[in-house]
Structures are given as structure tokens and as C-alpha cells.
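Good day; I would like, with your permission, to put a structural problem before you. A protein sequence and the C-alpha cells that stand for its backbone fold form the material at issue. The record follows directly beneath this note:
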Amino acid sequence: MGSQGSHLEREPELNLILEETGFSLANLNRLHHRFRDLDRNHKGYLSLMDLHNIKELEMNPLGDRIINSFFPDGGHCVNFRGFVRVLAHFRPLKEEDPRVKDPHKPEPLNSRNNKLRFAFQLYDLDCDGKISKKEMLQVLRLMVGVEVTDEQLEVIADRTVQEADLDGDGAVSFVEFAKSLEKMNIEHKMSIRILK
């Protein structure tokens, strides 16, 4: 396994990480190498600034929201386990994954439901369990930039919330969000092929 494997083998929760993320040992080795590359000062954790060094996230209009998802409790650092737990949401789901059908094991992080929950929290800016028209508008602004006028964005946000809002409360709950995306192949849209 070489020197890369020996670093990963020192992870205190390696077996737990393998179990809860579903990553292969080879993928965890690659991710551990990437984690160490991002941890330039060898602190053993990543900060917000470390994650801002990921070019793909800097170019993504939702990059800040994705980066914030690594710090769910408002903390300022993420260890290797937390890092790969977030990335596990983007691992393609394989039907033959035994955890998918085992009622005694937690739902895999890369399940359709968990992928939807991850996407929902990107829109739920105030973390109140609902996506308001204002939140939808803020996220749309991030995603389209100056390509669309404010008036057009407001119409899109209003229509999107109205169509998904089944109970008429003016906001979109997680259940409504999931229902509105039931025909979308979220497993494909939220999968990164290298994360098998």
C-alpha cells in the first residue's frame, strides 16, 4: 500500500469511515491524499480557507453553500471523517450496495433521500426547514449571476415556490421539495464518478 496507505491507516476511525461512507479503501486513499494536500499547514483538519482553495468549488456558483455544508454546526474546522462524509453524498448509488436494503443499518449517505436532503439544505439558507421565495431568489441570483434581470428572477422564484408549495404556506418543505424532484434523476445529477 506504500506511504499513502500508511497515512490513512493511522486514521483512528478508519473502519467506521469505510462503513458509513461506502467508499472503497482505494477511494479513501485518494481522498486522504487530497485532504492532506488541502491541509497545507499539516493541522490535521481543514478550515474554510483550505476548502476555498478547491478550484471546482470556487468556480461553482453554490461553492460557498457547499463549503459551508462541511461545517454543519457552525464550526471552523473539519477532520478527515467529516470531509469524506460530505463527499459521500456525491458517491454514485449502486443498487447492489447491501446497506440500501438492510433495515438494521443507517440509510447510506449517497441514497436518493440523503442526496435530496443535502440539496435542500443548500437552498434553506436560514435552516428553518423551509425554502421561502426570498431564499429561492437568493440562490437563483447566485446561480445565474447578471444574465437575468431581477424582475425575471422574481417571477422564476415565485413560480417555482408556488408549483412546489403543496400546502399553500408560501414556502417549500423538504417533503414538497422531494416531491417536486421525484422525476429528476438526482442520483445522476448529484454524483461524481470518481467517488465510487
Remarks:
- Confidence is low (pLDDT under 50) at residues 1-5.
- The radius of gyration is 18 Å.
